[in-house]
Write a structure and sequence with these properties.
Its cofactor is pyridoxal 5'-phosphate. By secondary structure, this protein is α/β, with parallel strands linked by helices. The protein contains 14 helices and 12 strands. The structure holds pyridoxal-5'-phosphate.
């Protein structure tokens, strides 16, 4: 007998969560239906009260969404996952379920911009406060904790500096202060990093990025123990920012090739980063797979690959960065990342454009910085594109 708990990630990626209808379809079926019919009044009553398992209404129960949740949970080695309409709704649902007025969050300073906006502007309206700690400074995380701290939240590697947070060390700090640790695992995906293994309590995903990996749909998820996911599920059931069945079906197919794609993204990104380090126009390259990266050793320990995103600084400042971005012919000028197609952006005037120049400098985002999400094109063609751009 196969022991399902001993299956490898490659197997789980294509097999976990598979369910078959009476038709015996081999691929995962797409259940595009808002509601489900019951056989009797009694069955409806039992299903609504949770005494009988089954599907009721797609705001909170849909077989295609359930299959995606089970497959993702298997890949994160988690008890349970709950899918959401986007990465941001995953973070919102987590906060709505686990925080209340008067609570405090300790978060890493280099978070995704919309996450900072959500914490400061919207959670702030309801009396939740936030302190930010530098990603790599453990004493700053310790110092930021308060008696009312309920959640530590980080993203590693972060964007665009690819700084690595020490998940195990920060989990220890969070737990000592009686708080949960949630990790945004968007840059690595479960194929390269499993935060729960390092002591995180919850993992959030923007499935829009590498999990879809082909730039087609938005989606998100929160992953963790039954006990921590259940209140998040109940918030989604009530408020409704759930994943659509169609998007779940696309993302299920994305998970099947995630491991292979991440391996190829990592190989291409490492070659591109190493090449960039030898270019005279480039003053610095940020990529966790480079020996020159300040947290190289930590990245090697915590991740099974360095990821598909890198940044670099051009000596010519903003003018040189804009000229390069305007000159590339293959790479896509778009802010999205985690796509089969390579994308190139200028963080200082896009993702971090609304910060003051001082705040941007404090965050380490220089005017000459360019971020590339390295896709699956041939590496020689990507290098050629940058050579002609330079
Ligand atoms: C894109 C992104 C998000 C938000 O995800 P959406 O699916 O766009 O809502 C959150 N965190 C990180 C690190 C991201 O890159």
């Amino acid at each position: 007998m196969l022991n399902l708990n001993e299956l490898h990630p490659e197997t789980l990626a294509v097999r976990a969560g598979t369910m078959r209808s009476e038709f015996g379809e081999h691929s995962d079926a797409l259940y595009l239906t808002s509601s489900f019919v019951v056989g009797s009044a009694e069955e409806a009553a039992l299903k609504f009260t949770g005494q009988m398992p089954g599907y009721i209404y797609s705001r909170f129960t849909n077989p295609t969404v359930a299959a995606f949740e089970q497959r993702l949970a298997a890949l994160e080695c988690a008890e349970r996952a709950v899918a959401t309409a986007s990465g941001m709704s995953a973070i919102l649902a987590l906060c709505m379920a686990h925080l209340k007025s008067g609570d405090h969050i300790v978060a890493s300073s280099g978070l995704f911009g919309a996450t900072i906006q959500l914490f400061n502007t919207y959670l702030g309206k309801f009396g939740v406060t936030v302190s930010y700690a530098a990603q790599t400074d453990l004493s700053a995380w310790e110092a930021a904790a308060q008696t009312n701290t309920k959640l530590f939240f980080l993203e590693t590697p972060n964007n665009p500096l690819t700084e690595i947070a020490d998940i195990a060390a920060i989990a220890e700090i969070a737990h000592r202060h009686g708080a949960l640790l949630a990790v945004d695992n968007c840059f690595c995906s479960p194929a390269l990093q499993q935060p729960l293994k390092w002591g995180a309590d919850l993992v959030v995903h923007s499935a829009t990025k590498f999990i879809d990996g082909q730039g087609r749909v938005l989606g998100g998820a929160v992953v963790g123990s039954h006990a921590l996911i259940e209140p998040i599920y109940l918030f989604l059931r009530t408020a409704g920012p759930t994943l659509s069945a169609f998007n779940a079906w696309v993302l299920l197919k994305g998970l099947e090739t995630l491991g292979l794609r991440m391996k190829a993204h990592c190989e291409n990104a490492l070659k591109l980063a190493q090449w960039l380090e030898t270019q005279p126009q480039v003053s610095r390259v940020y990529y966790p797979g480079l020996v020159s990266h300040p947290q190289y050793a930590l990245a090697q320990r915590q991740q099974t690959g360095a990821g598909g995103v890198l940044s670099f600084e051009l000596k010519g400042g903003k003018a040189a960065a804009w000229a390069l971005i305007d000159a590339v012919q293959l790479m896509s000028r778009t802010a999205n990342l985690g796509d089969t197609r390579t994308t190139i952006t200028h963080p200082a005037t896009t993702s971090h454009g609304r910060l003051t120049p001082e705040a941007r400098a404090a965050a380490g985002i220089s005017d000459g910085m360019v971020r590339i999400s390295v896709g699956l094109e041939h590496i020689d063609d990507l290098i050629k594109d940058l050579v002609s751009g330079f």
